[in-house]
Amino acid sequence: MLDIRDAIKAVQAREPSALYVTTCGYITRDVYNIADRENNFYLVGSMGMAGPIGLGVALADVARRVVVLDGDGSFAMNLGCLPMIAEHRPDLVHVVLDNGAHESTGGQRTAALGDPAALALAAGYAAACTVDSLEELAALDLTHTPALVHIRCLPRTHKAGDRVALTPQELVSRFRAGLGAPAHA
């Protein structure tokens, strides 16, 4: 099992030019503190919506890969987005960082998901797997998308990083600028 920050860094190193959509809470804070950049779209207070928003980004900018960084609790809130993502066949990698807890709200245990990779395949994703190590993550073939990567993570032992210091309006404007889109499209 991986430290969640090591998993995030490994995904970012593997997909450096991708557009990123991060779920709300500590995962967004981790990404913001590890590698803030204009191609990150942080969800602040939108639990369960990383997958659908990632799909929207992928459909709007089909020339770039989209990586969704989801938590196990957030993923469980919106399993209905899986067949919708699968149907559109975007170049999207849906990463589920699973530490078995709703860390951002106090560390409550998340509902058992069963096998997120099997759920994604059953919904029509082109590929899905579960990994427990950096070596397994590095060895993945992610050429067929949409793909789901379920990463088993250790419980958090570190303090959450700083909150995103940008307003939602600033986030949208910055993300659009990173895409080369007009500020008020």
UniProtKB/TrEMBL annotation:
The yes or no answer to whether the keyword Lyase is present is yes
Q: InterPro entries per the record? A: THDP-binding, TPP_dependent_decarboxylase, TPP_enzyme_TPP-bd
Keywords associated with the record:
Decarboxylase, Lyase
Q: Write down the Pfam families for this protein, in alphabetical order.
A: TPP_enzyme_C
Domain called Thiamine pyrophosphate enzyme TPP-binding: residue spans:
42-139
| Alphabetized SUPFAM superfamilies for the sequence | Thiamin diphosphate-binding fold (THDP-binding)
A GO molecular-function annotation: carboxy-lyase activity
Stated name of the protein: Thiamine pyrophosphate enzyme TPP-binding domain-containing protein
From which organism does this entry originate?
Streptomyces natalensis ATCC 27448
The beginning of the lineage is:
Bacteria, Bacillati, Actinomycetota, Actinomycetes, Kitasatosporales
